[in-house]
Amino acid sequence: MQRFFIQKSTILFLSLIALAGCRKNNQNQSYQQQAPELPVATVKQGDASVSREYAASVEGVSNVEIRPQVTGYLSKIFVDEGDYVRAGQPLFKIEDQVFREQLKSAQAALITAQANLSTSKIDLDRKKELFRNKMVSEIQVKEAEAAYNAARGAVSQSTSTIESAKINLNFSTIKAPVSGFIGRFNYRLGSLMSPGNQEAITLLSDIHQVYTYFSLSENDFNNFQKQYVGSSIDEVIKNTPAVSLLLSGGDTYTETGKIDAVEGQFNKTTGSITLRAKFNNPNNILRSGNTGKVILEQFYSNVVLLPIASTRTIQDKVFVFTIKDGKATMLPVEINGKAGDNFIVSNGLKAGDEYIASGFDRLQPGTPVVAQKKNAQQKKS
What we know:
By secondary structure, the protein is α+β, with helices and mostly antiparallel strands. The chain has six helices and 20 strands.
């Protein structure tokens, strides 16, 4: 009886093992049958153009501080804030009565000096004649010559005083040194003007052309120098293509600009160097103080290109799915910029590598994946 029970238990145990093995095989077969079939593409290499944006500030080609050159009270203002003025146009008037009187005084002093000069000349000529007749000594002649030379000096000094008075009188009318737009006034009628004033009266901006200043990091600047032909920075700048300006509102400025200057050294604090681009401004759209972004096109040859749609971004890091040993692998890649619909890959992939092109939205690393056959993929496309 006991022997029969042992045989029956053994048969039951073996049956259970066999049943479990069948179930496991069925699960593995079902698991393999459920592995998704996803399209695979090959990494390509080619040329690319990348648009890089750099924050920029705008200034007129000439920003002139309007300051008084003489002391006096501001008596007239001929223009208003924001007006466009032309070079030589009167802007402000400083009370000039003092300067007119100084000019009159200098002119009167000149008349006196000229009269003294005439008298000295007559006296010198007379004593020279008397000296020839031996009626005066040589010392007296020399004294007359000295008096004459002093009178000549007085005339020159009076003439110089007149010119100085005229200059001061002209400075009492403050004129525009360049054509441009008037800025905000820092002083009003009746204010005491002086060359030593801390603030300028206003700022005059010539904006028929504008300068935009933007900065490049050390790496970007090194790439900038390598990218364009030239044995010196001046030649590199000359061969640099036109740049665009993105306005603060998001619109692209209609005129293109040209880089024309590079700062002499890097800023030790920021580690960047400043470049300057000049833009024409025929419609006066841009004003001093505007901000925007300079768009600099950078060209790359024989770089690895990866479609943006075939990547996944997690916490500012870019990944691409590949198939290794029949399973999905999420591979990190380093990006050097965007060129149209592609990423420029600097590290992580090389030309000829294969990646999963699409259908990986819910795919997890380690999931079994089957590469879609190329002929089937072509039929679907």
